[in-house]
Amino acid sequence: MSAREKSLEERFHTFLDILSRKLKDTPAVERISREDREVEERAFKVLLSTILSARTKDEITLEISKRLFKRIKTPQDLVDIDEKELERLIYPVGFYRTKARYLKKLGEMLIEEFQGKVPRRLEDLIRLPGVGRKTGNLVITLAYDDYGICVDTHVHRICNRWEYIDTETPEESEMELRKKLPKRYWKIINTLLVDYGKRVCSPVPRCHLCPEEIREICPYYHKLQGIEKVLEKYNFKKVSKNNIPEEKGTYILKIKLKEPRIITYGKNRKRFKRGYYFYVGSAMGKSNNLRRRIERHLREDKKLHWHIDYLLQYGTVKEVYVSREAVECEVARDLSFLKSIEGFGSSDCSCKSHLFFMKS
Ligand code: SF4
């Protein structure tokens, strides 16, 4: 069986196996977790360094955590330290003022409610100030060596790109992963995907940095390649929104919807997921040209006319492609390997749709 004939699940597991093989750098919090054998001390340090690590570069997290642990060894130390001094100690981690405030409250709560110890249960951990499910799961896995799945924005995005799950939020992703991810990956998935999500499979993926053995089995990569092929086949050119040619032809709008939305268009009411939408239209009529048609779509104060205009109320046009060829329906047919959204066909064609969805 070739790599691409494997099921989506098998491919994703293979991807994780490849990343495990290649992993070189251990993230800061994991390195900290390996330094203490004594479980209570380890849990306290992991908790603090995980809070520091949010929106902070790994090398800063490591350096500042070490500085902090020289001065703060117990929850009582957090209670005793002056907040301004704590701010100075943890500067320049991201949101250091807010984090100093959380850490002060954290110290109080650990003493008052948990006998000065870091709780082991996720339900208790997420009650602590500055601790969400992501931090809580990291403490469970790294400090207590229990099973947890730490899902942040990178894990959420990459698992969805690989179509391993179909979810809208990191919380939903955690629940889905708990149902289907084999336990051997629970503790390492965060380490593997956070690093990869920052360097390579970032919000705008840098697929050229991905090894061939990963690209070969990545469903997202094949979709991106499929789109490129269609653009090439019909001689599409990317144009600036301010420089659309006054010619007849076919156009594609790449629209980004940042948040899911329920949108009413015509007689339809539908929930649109966050992600990218590709709309194929044409400007071939006598009194029409690409500039007139596309600028009309782009105007903020437009009268809602075509169904796509209802989506454009909430989405942002990120890219515009134009071709001089009259190929609207051919392009729509060739893009149908993406998910088509019904109700967006042209009035004079029998296509199922001219609007296609792809996750971001
Ligand atoms: S090929 Fe592209 S989309 Fe796939 S994992 Fe690599 S960077 Fe991400």
UniProtKB/TrEMBL annotation:
Residues 52-199 form the HhH-GPD domain. PROSITE patterns: ENDONUCLEASE_III_2. It catalyses: Hydrolyzes mismatched double-stranded DNA and polynucleotides, releasing free thymine. Its cofactor is [4Fe-4S] cluster. InterPro entries: DNA_glycosylase, DUF123, Endonuclease-III-like_CS2, Endonuclease3_FeS-loop_motif, GIY-YIG_endonuc, HhH-GPD_domain, HhH_base_excis_C. SUPFAM superfamilies: DNA-glycosylase (SSF48150). Residues 259-359 form the GIY-YIG domain. GO terms for molecular function: 4 iron, 4 sulfur cluster binding; DNA-(apurinic or apyrimidinic site) endonuclease activity; G/T mismatch-specific thymine-DNA glycosylase activity; lyase activity; metal ion binding; oxidized pyrimidine nucleobase lesion DNA N-glycosylase activity. Keywords: 4Fe-4S, DNA damage, DNA repair, Glycosidase, Hydrolase, Iron, Iron-sulfur, Lyase, Metal-binding. SMART domains: ENDO3c (SM00478), FES (SM00525), GIYc (SM00465). Its EC number is 3.2.2.29. One of its GO terms (biological process) is base-excision repair, AP site formation. Belongs to the Nth/MutY family. This is thymine-DNA glycosylase. It comes from Methanothermococcus okinawensis.
